[in-house]
């Protein structure tokens, strides 16, 4: 679902907080994910060294990004992979459509891809008469319910077994109602197997693209990614331009960090390394492989020496699992593709502060996200920068707020005005939090109670007592 300019974050938050079932589902899932992550990163020193190495690899790649992208294109082309560049999501969607039409294709199967969500690819293809079927189990579930993902790694994390059972029974023809997990998985497998063999094109994301060898790496657990990239005669991969890394030897530490942070695994079930289409004499694999490299504001982010660290992200989702805000709201409340702490810094830069800047306020700045980030993105520092930018924009747009801040500065420069303000606060007492914008602030916080006497008065009084 494409977001509109009428995005109502406050309303989304209120609705999410009122949904008790949602909060129970999230809490149960988060506890499991956090416990599994802790089990694979049990040694603090080893974990910190690994994080430092992962961050260094990603920072080195960002520092050489234009050269690495050019090298990646050369090696991919030499391997027989066709490279398409897209500055916007519209251009990326059109590239997918053009490839589909060149093969008269009307059926596509998709592996998990956050970039395709960023493109809103499914509704785009549907408008052009093309069936686009999600094959990741979580994505398959939410597609049946016509919902966007709620989490970067676990898209259906907001649903429990009962809800999935009802969805399958209502949306899949002849599916019986069952809450047995194995039976539900078998129903999905039977449905998707038919789609795999009928599809003319398969689409996947890219976890890492190796410039040195022209290799596309795909991390997964279910095997659906391998089916999407080998069974249909045409494979289309989509990726953000920040996914490129320099060398093949950079993969092991990044893979260890990604899988441990995302799902608490030492290694995933499948790790696909795609270096070209089927060669003469080979019995399987696609006849064509295409890679679409999407910008969508990333070069603008890269140009900012502070905010460019947003692009270090490997999309593990662990910052969501540890965030006290996300774990109470779920992903849909954020209103855009990327939820949680990473979405709070990425979305305002992609969509603009005027449209999505409010997301930067959805944080307690507790620092939990930075402490667990596998590549050490300083998310709280980036949030503070966005908040300063947001405040500066509001100050120039709102003369009343600008006047209020000037009054605040004057009060703290002139002792007499400060004394009068303190006295006024003491007289207003408990009524002060109910006035103006403080009223909304105090709804979910215990408001401070202004003292009846200022510190100066108390000190003078104490000194007077002592002098007697």
Strand content: 5-15%
Please tell me the overall pLDDT: 92
Class by helix and strand content? alpha/beta
Identify the CATH architecture of the largest domain: 3-Layer(aba) Sandwich
How far the N terminus sits from the C terminus, by CA atoms, comes to: 75 Å
Radius of gyration: 26 Å
Name of the CATH first level of the largest domain: Alpha Beta
Largest sheet: 6 strands, parallel
How many distinct beta strands?
10
Whole-number tally of structural domains: 2
CATH topology heading of the largest domain: Rossmann fold
Q: Could you list the spans in which at least 5 consecutive residues all have pLDDT below 50?
A: 1-5
Strand order of the largest sheet: 1-10-7-4-2-3
Fraction in helix: 40-55%
| Count of helical stretches | 23
Inertia-based shape = globular
Tell me the name of the CATH homologous superfamily of the largest domain: NagB/RpiA/CoA transferase-like
Summarize the topology:
Elements: H1 9-17, H2 20-40, H3 44-63, H4 65-78, E1 82-86, H5 89-102, E2 107-110, H6 114-119, H7 121-127, E3 131-134, H8 137-144, H9 161-171, H10 181-198, E4 201-204, E5 208-210, E6 215-220, H11 224-230, E7 234-240, E8 244-245, H12 251-263, E9 270-274, E10 288-294, H13 298-302, H14 318-321, H15 326-329, H16 340-351, H17 353-356, H18 368-372, H19 379-397, H20 399-413, H21 415-428, H22 438-441, H23 455-467
Parallel strand pairs: 1-10, 2-3, 2-4, 4-7, 5-8, 7-10
Antiparallel strand pairs: 5-6, 6-9
Helix pairs in contact: 2-12, 9-10, 16-19, 19-20, 20-21
């Amino acid at each position: 679902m494409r977001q509109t300019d009428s995005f109502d974050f406050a309303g989304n938050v209120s609705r999410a907080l009122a949904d008790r079932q949602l909060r129970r589902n999230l809490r149960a899932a988060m506890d499991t994910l956090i416990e599994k992550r802790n089990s694979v990163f049990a040694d603090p020193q080893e974990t910190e060294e690994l994080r430092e190495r992962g961050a260094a690899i990603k920072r080195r790649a960002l520092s050489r990004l234009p050269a690495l992208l050019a090298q990646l294109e050369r090696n991919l082309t030499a391997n027989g992979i066709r490279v398409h560049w897209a500055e916007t999501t519209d251009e990326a969607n059109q590239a997918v459509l053009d490839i589909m039409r060149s093969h008269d294709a009307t059926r596509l199967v998709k592996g998990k891809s956050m970039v395709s969500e960023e493109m809103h690819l499914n509704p785009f293809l549907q408008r052009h008469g093309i069936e686009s079927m999600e094959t990741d189990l979580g994505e398959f579930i939410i597609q049946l319910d016509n919902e966007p993902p709620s989490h970067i790694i676990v898209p259906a994390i907001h649903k429990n077994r009962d809800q999935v059972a009802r969805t399958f029974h209502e949306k899949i023809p002849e599916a019986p109602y069952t809450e047995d997990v194995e039976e539900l998985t078998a129903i999905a497998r039977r449905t998707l197997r038919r789609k795999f063999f009928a599809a003319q094109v398969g689409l996947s994301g890219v976890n890492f693209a190796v410039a040195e060898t022209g290799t596309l790496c795909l991390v997964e657990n279910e095997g659906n990614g391998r089916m999407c990239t080998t069974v249909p005669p045409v494979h289309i991969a989509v990726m953000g331009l920040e996914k490129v890394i320099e060398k093949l030897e950079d993969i092991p530490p990044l893979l260890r960090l990604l899988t441990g942070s995302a799902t608490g695994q030492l290694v995933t079930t499948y790790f696909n390394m795609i270096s070209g289409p089927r060669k003469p004499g080979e019995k399987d694999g696609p006849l064509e492989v295409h890679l679409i490299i999407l910008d969508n504001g990333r070069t603008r982010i890269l140009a900012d020496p502070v905010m460019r660290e947003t692009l270090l992200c490997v999309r593990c989702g662990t910052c969501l699992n540890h965030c006290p805000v996300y774990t109470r709201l779920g992903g849909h409340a954020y209103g855009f593709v990327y939820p949680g702490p990473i979405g709070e810094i990425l979305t305002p830069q992609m969509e603009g502060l005027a449209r999505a800047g409010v997301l930067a306020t959805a944080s307690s700045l507790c620092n939990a996200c930075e402490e667990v980030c596998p590549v050490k993105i300083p998310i709280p520092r980036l949030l503070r920068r966005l908040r300063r930018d947001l405040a500066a924009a509001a100050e120039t747009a709102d003369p009343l707020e600008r006047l209020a801040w000037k009054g605040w500065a004057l009060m703290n420069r002139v002792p007499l005005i400060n004394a009068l303000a303190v006295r006024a606060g003491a007289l207003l007492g408990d009524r002060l939090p109910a006035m103006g914008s403080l009223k909304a602030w105090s709804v979910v916080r215990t408001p401070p109670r202004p003292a009846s006497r200022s510190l100066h008065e108390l000190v003078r009084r104490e000194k007077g007592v002592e002098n007697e």
